[in-house]
Amino acid sequence: MKRFHVHAHVADLQESIVFYSKLFGAEPARVESDYAKWMLEDPRINFAISTRGDKLGVDHLGIQADTEEDLAEMRAQAQAADMALLDQGETTCCYARSDKHWVVDPQGIAWEHFHTLGQVAVFSEKAAPADKASACCVAPGTAPRAVGVPVEAARSCC
């Protein structure tokens, strides 16, 4: 089974946690000083917010796989569709250790496909470049991004 994923950058984390907790009728599953995540079952979504981006709003969309087999199937589908695919493999970001890859749609919207392997204590164990210290996501491709962090500048995600 899979879960839809949305990551948005917000200006005020606490204000946004209050808003989304009321909107979803649920408290976040994880809260950090710069990040919050809801793992909802109805609808089945992994909704994350953070203060790490340089643009407010939706950063990227994604699909979280429950199994490595689901992730491999999504990778094969992306490759069969002749999509440019960036395979990050095992990485850490957004307080999780995951196996992931990225594709970008024709409009430049980054899609993250990932399987979460466990939690980690830090947002990312990889250093971001100085000019993009708040960047969250890595995505392949050269098309201009309609949302979020520029593709060539991003380094890690959730």
| Alpha carbon gap, first and last residue | 18 Å
| CATH T-level topology | 2,3-Dihydroxybiphenyl 1,2-Dioxygenase, domain 1
Can you name the CATH architecture?
A: Roll
Major sheet characteristics:
8 strands, mixed
CATH superfamily: 2,3-Dihydroxybiphenyl 1,2-Dioxygenase, domain 1
Strands side by side in the biggest sheet: 2-3-4-1-5-8-7-6
| Percent helix | 10-25%
Number of strands: 8
| SSE order, one letter for each helix or strand | EHEEEEHEEE
Uncertain residue segments: 127-136, 138-156
Task: Estimate nothing, just give the exact number of structural domains.
Answer: 1
Q: Quick one: CATH class? A: Alpha Beta
- Give the integer mean of the pLDDT values: 81
Beta-strand percentage range? 35-45%
Radius of gyration: 15 Å
Overall structural class, as computed from helix and strand content, comes to alpha+beta
Q: Estimate the global geometry from the Cα principal axes.
A: globular
Molecular structure report:
This protein is of the alpha+beta class. 16% of the residues lie in helices and 39% in strands. The relative contact order is 0.21. Mean pLDDT is 81; it is low at 127-136 and 138-156.
In short:
With 158 residues, this protein is α+β, with helices and mostly antiparallel strands.
